[in-house]
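Hey,

Quick one before I head out. I ran the complex with nicotinamide-adenine-dinucleotide overnight. Inputs first:
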Amino acid sequence: MQTHLSIINPATATLVKEIPIDDATTIQQKAAAARQAQPAWAGSPLAERIAAIARFRDLLGQRQADLAATLTAETGKPITQSNNELATTQTRLNFFIDHVAQVLAPDVVHQEPIGIPGTGDLEEVISYDPLGVIANISAWNYPYFVGSNVFIPALLTGNAVLYKPSEFAALTGLAIADLLHTAGIPEDIFVPIIGGGATGATLLEQPLNGVFFTGSYTTGKKIAAAAAAQLAKVQLELGGKDPAYICDDVPDVAAVAAAVADGSFYNNGQSCCAIERIYVHAAIYEEFLAAYLETVQGFVMGDPTDPNTYLGPISRQIHLDELERQVKDAVTQGATLHCGGHRIDGTGWYFAPTVLTEVTHDMAVMRDETFGPVIGIQKVESDAEAISLMNDTDYGLTAAVYSADRSRAIHILGQINSGTAYWNCCDRVSPQLPWSGRGHSGVGTTLSLEGIRTFTQPRGWHLRQ
Ligand code: NAD
């Protein structure tokens, strides 16, 4: 049985560190300790919980250089992008800190005099109690973002969190735990559980009040089944196949091409909301394609520790096979390969940025989540054709429309089945707005007030004076 995780640097294919894996016994002990500690945490003053999270935010800032280096070492994320993630996480935490009191405040929803002599008034109130002990099983691609979307509001609202970071971002997971504990979160209230899929499955055998998962659709279905077995609340943030449609009226085609290329290739395309399909109106197709290719060919690929690097290695070696499969499938069926299409010989797990045209929805590259630096671009003749193609997917995370005309864009987006709609932007997340997927992209909501409330359960109070 595997007892240690080997953390491998994707840029150099060398061992970074070996760390012990949790086994069934330690997981059970940790879950039992969290269960025991949770009521006291829920009973602690909200101001104290907020102060601890504010200290955690400040520690992220103070230790940012080291934390970014660790993230880059274990995922291959370019250092500039690791720093961006850490900096943005600090501002995102302010949203939770500023809004948790509002969400937890009891709602007085009804008051009436009873009208019976000798009896007082009736009051109906809703309180928002923590769920209890929750599991947070997380992905590696943005461990600070996707993790803190869950464990920060969960902790603020009084839950204990059993946090299983991805096996591909486990050092970051341990660093997060260390900083939260330093900030004052009790060790039995935020508890890291280290290991891969089997460890996650064992975690889901513990008694839980909620299961919050970020990862692939395939794993998400297993998570939902495991959570259902004990009737725990389940929330799933899964993959995407996010489309962008470029209308014929965009005023600056080259600028749009550059923005959409960034939305496709940032973090090597390893973003749940990366643009994975592009539809371009025939009237501007040639101009768009030329500008898009020029942008992609200008991307600097290389050592992720170099601040000038835009494209690092692929984080999981095995995923190179999937990228090759999708390219081969497309080319075999008649797609045109403009650049890339292959892994790069040498040290590390690099894949050349790849642009395909003459693609169709019979090809895996336009159907399956790619999660890498490979994009398909398709010419369309009308808004109606674009809408039909954008909706031709099992996923429903985000959709983007670029147009000079706000009402045209909103009319198109209104017909697309996605949790997020973008006009003249893409690959963007805001703490004020709900983050949720439809179809194979998931169940439930993080971020926004809704994404704080999701870590609570309402309780109805009938109060007669
Ligand atoms: P993954 O599904 O392979 O793994 C996710 C987590 O699940 C890991 O911690 C893994 O160890 C664990 N796991 C695997 N099998 C398990 C099992 N049987 N029981 C319990 N836990 C198990 O996904 P990944 O490669 O880490 O992440 C990439 C995926 O995540 C992509 O599909 C991406 O789109 C998605 N994602 C979605 C969002 C979003 O907000 N919707 C954000 C980030 C990533």
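The two ends are 62 Å apart (CA to CA).

Talk tomorrow,
K.
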